[in-house]
Amino acid sequence: MTGYLYEKDLRQMKFTILTSTRHDEAVRAIAGRLGISDAKLRMVLIRRFDMSLLENLESRWQMGQEHADNDSDPAAKDLGCELFTRFVPLVETETMRSICDETKAMIGDGSSRDEAIARGKARVREAVLS
Known about the structure:
By secondary structure, the protein is mainly α. It has nine helices and no strands.
């Protein structure tokens, strides 16, 4: 007797999608932006995303680069506040809002912008990997 498709382990199919040419380029770009290895990002994507999100990952990444965080401040753009919540949903909205607000507060309190952004990016990376 055959089982239902949704009962099957889809990890191999998801991995195949992520290693196709266009998707692999997007994965490498996202991993580079986050400062993590390609393999770690692939594991996160396989675990969190469904097939539909994975199939559209490359186009979501391109659209996010063009349209994400255009109306907000430079700190939000550097952290990818909208990019990693709306276009490539790797971080929960509330978590990202907290990271962005704390980073802006650090900049406002006199911390160097580069240091605040580096700490914010580290928190985004931690949120993605958790």
